[in-house]
Specification:
- The chain is mostly beta strands and 103 residues long.
- It contains no helices and 10 strands.
- A hairpin with a 4-residue loop joins β8 and β9.
- The chain has one domain.
- Keywords: Ribonucleoprotein, Ribosomal protein, RNA-binding, rRNA-binding.
- Part of the 50S ribosomal subunit. Contacts protein L20.
- This is Large ribosomal subunit protein bL21.
């Protein structure tokens, strides 16, 4: 059984007991979180597609930890002009574990 769910503006294909990284959630570590924007549910071949979401379906998950992603360096340069700019960015992430898919 799997589902496609929208979490913090991104769509993820999730299964029970799967661990995924999502954008930082406002829930503390160890807390429970529910996602109700379920777009599709596949229950052993019986596919239910929402319009736009599946009625009554929700995903429950547990927040394992908060962390920061790898550093991404952004380098800009204009040749022959002496212009160089270096910026770095680290994304704030949350690791969650899917506990149950309720269809």
């Amino acid at each position: 059984m799997y589902a496609i769910v929208e979490i913090a503006g991104q769509q993820f294909k999730v299964e029970k007991d799967q661990k995924i990284f999502v954008h930082r959630l406002r829930t503390e570590e160890g807390g429970q979180v529910e996602f109700e924007k379920v777009l599709l549910v596949d229950n052993n071949g019986a596919i239910v597609v929402g319009a736009p979401t599946v009625e009554g379906a929700k995903i429950t998950a547990k927040v394992i930890s908060h962390m920061r992603g790898d550093k991404v360096k952004v380098f800009k340069k204009k040749r022959r002009k002496g212009y160089q700019k270096l910026n770095g960015h680290r994304q704030d992430l949350s690791q969650i574990q899917i506990e149950d898919i309720l269809a």
